[in-house]
């Protein structure tokens, strides 16, 4: 899932921490300093699926 709002992305991160949701990959910045720069993290759902959440600095990169 890609977030339009950085505020919403950060709110989900806080909720994940508060509720101790299993994290497969901690939040990280990818492609720093480029038009594709974004922050992302990956959660594990109750059935073992991996769910990626991200927010792009440049909204034109959302697809």
From TrEMBL:
GO terms for molecular function: dioxygenase activity. It comes from the Bacteria. Keywords: Dioxygenase, Oxidoreductase. InterPro entries: Glyas_Bleomycin-R_OHBP_Dase. This is Extradiol dioxygenase family protein. It comes from Streptomyces spectabilis. The lineage of its organism: Bacteria, Bacillati, Actinomycetota, Actinomycetes, Kitasatosporales.
